[in-house]
UniProtKB/TrEMBL annotation:
The lineage of its organism: Eukaryota, Metazoa, Chordata, Craniata, Vertebrata. InterPro entries: ADGR_G7, GAIN_dom_sf, GPCR_2-like_7TM, GPCR_2_secretin-like, GPR128_GAIN_subdom_A, GPR128_GAIN_subdom_B, GPR128_N, GPS. GO terms for molecular function: G protein-coupled receptor activity. It comes from the Eukaryota. Residues 425-707 form the G-protein coupled receptors family 2 profile domain. Its main location: membrane. It is found in: Membrane. SMART domains: GPS. This is Adhesion G protein-coupled receptor G7. It comes from Cyprinus carpio carpio. Pfam families: 7tm_2, GPR128_GAIN_subdom_B, GPR128_GAIN_subdomA, GPR128_N, GPS. One of its GO terms (biological process) is cell surface receptor signaling pathway. It is a multi-pass membrane protein. Residues 1-22 form the signal peptide. GO terms for cellular component: membrane.
Amino acid sequence: MCKMEYFLLLTISSAIFDQTWCQNYSSSTLRPNNITNPTVVCENMGTLQNGICLCLDDWTGASCSISNFCPGQNLKQFTFPKTVLGQFASSVERCPPETTNAGIPQASALCNKTSHSFDSPNTVDCSLTLDTINADLSGATPEQKQNLAASTQILTSIPERLTPHNITNAAKITNKLLSDQLKTQNMDIAVSAVATISQLLNASHEMYTSVDHDAISVLTKTLQKLSLRENSNSLLVQPNVAVQSLKMQTPIQNVQLTSLKGQSDFFLPDRIKLNTGHAEIFKDNVDLQINITLTEDSNEVVGFVLYNNDQFFRSKSFQPSLDTERKVMSANIQENLKFEVMFTVTPTAVSTLSLNDFACVFWSYTKNDWSTEGCTKITSPSGPAVCRCKPVKNGNGNANANANANANFAILMAFDVNYQYSEALHWISITGCALSVVGLSVTALYQIITRKSRGGSPTLLVVNVCISMTVFYLLFLFGINNPVEHVNVAKMSGENIVPESDHHKYSDQGPCTAFTALLQYFLLLTFTWNTLYGINVFLLFKNSVSGTPSWFPLVAMAVGWGLPAVIVGISLGSTYHVEEPLGYRQEEFCWLASVDHNQKFSIKKPMFWGFVLPLLLMLISNTAILLHFSYKICRTNPNLNRSGKTSLKKKMMSSFSLAVMLGLSWVTGYILMITQEKNLKFILSVVFCLLNTTQGVQIFILFALRPFLNSNPAILNYLHAPEIGFHKKSFFLWKNKIPESNDSYKSTDGDSP
Ligand SMILES: *[C@@H]1O[C@H](CO)[C@@H](O)[C@H](O)[C@H]1NC(C)=O
Ligand SMILES: *[C@@H]1O[C@H](CO)[C@@H](O)[C@H](O)[C@H]1NC(C)=O
Ligand SMILES: *[C@@H]1O[C@H](CO)[C@@H](O)[C@H](O)[C@H]1NC(C)=O
Ligand SMILES: *[C@@H]1O[C@H](CO)[C@@H](O)[C@H](O)[C@H]1NC(C)=O
Ligand SMILES: *[C@@H]1O[C@H](CO)[C@@H](O)[C@H](O)[C@H]1NC(C)=O
Ligand SMILES: *[C@@H]1O[C@H](CO)[C@@H](O)[C@H](O)[C@H]1NC(C)=O
């Protein structure tokens, strides 16, 4: 309803504010599915997409009716929760607190695909560390190796607890286990090792900045070799990694591997489909697909490795800043055969992002970065991003072609953020703002005209508050909506260039940033002058005979106009770049940036330290002065009956009215920010909106209308209007409570009769 509310709320409290508030309901409400096959009904919370059911991980089959899990089970002394087929369950029992591995599961069990129940559990020694395992591995017997593999899987089963050191160690261990496995063909070890790798891929991005990248490189190369195990046609799948090998029975030219979409993003055995050219071709609900085409028929071994994210491939040139993931596909051929790969990945279906452009790349182990050499983009205006790569051998590649050919492919996508540009101002806001502008201008004029009766300081302060607020309202009316809106249309370029980031950035065109800086300045200005007003009253009270010190107006001018400028300067200087204006401001409307890339309110953003924090300090100091002042006034027992002496209290209270009024509406804003209850939130937002847009009107009543009427009692009587004043009640209270006082006061305001 109210723009002011939108303005503050979206900025201050987007973290707390439901994301749903910002959504475009007309496009996001569930439309009835365009059911091409009306007989399909998805069970077990499966959702229909393009006539195909997308199942939860626990279910499979065309209508999600086939169970895909081992139910919870007690085995030996351990309890295992419900788990997806082919994955490891961690025991509910944890290592006791006094042990090295406190909190790590004591056991794990594999959910058996054929029996739909857990295999016999593996246990871990609660004092074992990855360092020890890494050291023990070389001399271990096959049985011991199997134990160590299982232990490594358990020790790495809580991704949040993995440190860079743990990841490096686990990578070294799994690399040794898998290299061994290539000779011994022990499947249990391979399954544990692949599960460990999947868990490593689930560790947080931050951890990967300081892992040993050589250990990771060696591991990815070993996985490539693992996918080419000669005597097995097998698929090893864990949530974040899949290894598929295929020994062709007859000479074949084409092999296609497809990972189908489910509701989760993870790889599951029944979603990974291998197709050797004769079987069905998967086109719908494809998450990723990779085709290997050999230049001649062959019956060699072909292998694929799929990674759910690119944590093992940390690029220097491509630095993602949005929370997107990139799947990495490795295609491998055993012999030094000529081949070509085509691959596609469906962009993440996040409604706030749309694909702007992409690059087809492979991982260069020599550069330790993505490279586009030998890859081309196949663009169609609306179709998926498709890539074709012809392997290029790296310099030293001939001796060991498989490990060195460009085998790890990915599509690096740059997205546009679909900003929900704010709507035009509501008429309530426009009316409120316009009335405020008029009220403030009249007040400023009135104060200037009647300045003689009051003295310089109060006039200076009120007039400055009026000016800064007037400018703020005008800026708000005309500048809050971003004049340069980016319409997101994919502009796929034919060139295959590695983008700098997953966020396609537009360089700044100026107006919105200028408006933001001016809004920040004039809003801070309003509050600075408001605080100075409070300080002025405080000084007046302290020196009730001599009045405000003579230096005050000068200092007030310097601080009043200077301090906000300094804050704006620091905010701009430290966060603004022409290529990346969104460090300083928002895109949806012209106001300070407040949230990090996770859409969480961040204290590192200028909204907090360049606005909320200074504001809070000023509000606190105003409140402190007000409390101090009220306390003193009660203590000094002013006499409110005697005319002439009442004036000071009146003046002082009216000066504080300003502080209270300004403070109140912003405090409402702050409460609004932390309120979760929907109804209260609505009421508060209406109150906030009214208080805010009509502040100028309130100032007009306090500083122009009321003094004017008070100095012309005839008009007042003629109109039979009740005295307009916020403090009437308080005066009555004090009148009854407080006995006489002989203090004499100087007037701060010009409204004495
Ligand atoms: C919401 O989405 C619909 C359909 O996509 C579009 O026509 C409409 O303009 C959008 N409304 C707003 C406020 O963005
Ligand atoms: C469903 O989709 C088809 C083609 O994609 C279209 O012709 C048809 O009108 C759609 N039906 C509905 C009910 O939207
Ligand atoms: C899984 O269960 C099947 C059938 O009960 C059994 O033959 C097989 O050995 C089990 N797998 C493992 C790894 O224990
Ligand atoms: C993981 O690393 C930390 C130190 O980085 C270490 O204290 C801890 O023991 C390691 N965990 C395991 C299971 O080795
Ligand atoms: C990976 O981590 C996410 C959260 O960090 C969690 O929701 C998910 O279940 C984890 N997946 C696996 C397979 O451990
Ligand atoms: C893979 O090959 C199949 C059949 O030749 C084709 O339909 C599909 O589009 C190809 N996929 C990619 C990603 O090129």
